[in-house]
Write a structure and sequence with these properties.
There is one protein chain. This protein has 8 helices and 10 strands. It is α/β, with parallel strands linked by helices. Strands 6-7-8-3-9-10 form a 6-stranded mixed β-sheet, with helices on both faces. The protein has a 4-stranded antiparallel β-sheet with strand order 2-1-4-5, with helices on one face. The longest helix has 16 residues. The two termini are 29 Å apart. The chain binds adenosine-5'-triphosphate and magnesium ion (MG). The site of magnesium ion has 4 residues, from helix 2.
């Protein structure tokens, strides 16, 4: 596990739980479709410190992905705000949000994490290049740690569902981001493979990364330092 740990820049020196890396305050998000209104987030506050691993669980449709999208600056909340590494992320121009995202967050969404025309290893290289960090040896090591060492030349369409999820996680982590947002990182994987993912996430946490994971997996939630339960767009501590 030392590989990932030693990679995150300066992170080993960061005392665990010392600084808040990501903070969402009183987040609201409503969706409208004709007269129908979905109250996807209804006043959610969450914070994740450097070196802390938080899991968000809750029924399908409870708002987990909506929360992650808002925290990542991929979506704008209708109310509330998000601070990333001490800087306001919400209601900034898209170009500014994109810059902050590239510098601060590795993101694994529920789908569309890989460019279909590129091999797995080229997806990782592109992600490193866009963030201006990481190196090709790190990309190779990450693939090996996630059980994808032999699949580097494969294109996403040639991967199984579980391999696609792990490849997305590798892309999210390749630039050693200070914050990791991961939506269902162990969807579609067996118990043994899930353990590999845990190992990588534990190493990342030890290196000082702030981790927020949305999951339906109780086994994954059990690995976290804290579990937040979402219900109908609201959150309550465990
Ligand atoms: N772009 C959108 N337009 C309209 N409604 C949306 C949109 N995105 C999400 N919703 C609705 O908001 C609610 C929360 O959805 P969300 O995807 O956040 O749930 P989730 O907890 O991630 O579910 P799952 O566990 O199935 O991934 C749902 O009722 C969903 O239908
Ligand atoms: Mg979701």
């Amino acid at each position: 596990m030392g590989e990932v740990a030693t990679r995150a820049t300066g992170a080993a020196a960061r005392p665990r739980g010392a600084s808040v890396a990501l903070r969402g305050v009183d987040l609201y998000r409503f969706f409208h479709d004709g007269d129908a209104e979905t109250l996807a987030l209804r006043g959610v506050s969450v914070q994740v410190a450097a070196g802390e691993w938080v899991a968000v669980v809750g029924a399908s449709g409870s708002g987990k992905s909506t929360l992650l999208n808002c925290l990542a600056g991929l979506d704008e909340p209708d109310g509330g705000h998000v601070d990333l590494l001490g800087r306001r992320l919400t209601r900034r121009p898209e170009a500014e949000r994109a810059r902050q995202r590239a510098a601060g967050i590795g993101i694994l969404m529920q789908s569309h994490n890989l460019l279909p025309s590129l091999s797995l290893i080229d997806n990782l290289r592109l992600a490193s290049a866009l963030c201006g960090r990481g190196d090709r040896h790190h990309a190779r090591r990450l693939l090996e740690q996630l059980g994808l060492g032999e699949r580097g030349q494969a294109r996403p369409a040639q991967l199984s569902g579980g391999e696609v999820a792990r490849a997305g996680l590798a892309v999210a982590l390749v630039a050693s981001p200070p914050v990791l947002l991961a939506d269902e990182p162990t969807g579609e994987v067996d118990a043994a493979t899930e353990q590999q993912v845990f190992e990588v996430l534990r190493a990342q946490r030890a290196a000082g990364t702030a981790i927020l994971v949305a999951t339906h997996s109780e086994a994954l939630a059990a690995q976290a330092d804290r579990v937040l339960r979402m219900q109908d767009g609201r959150i309550g501590d465990d």
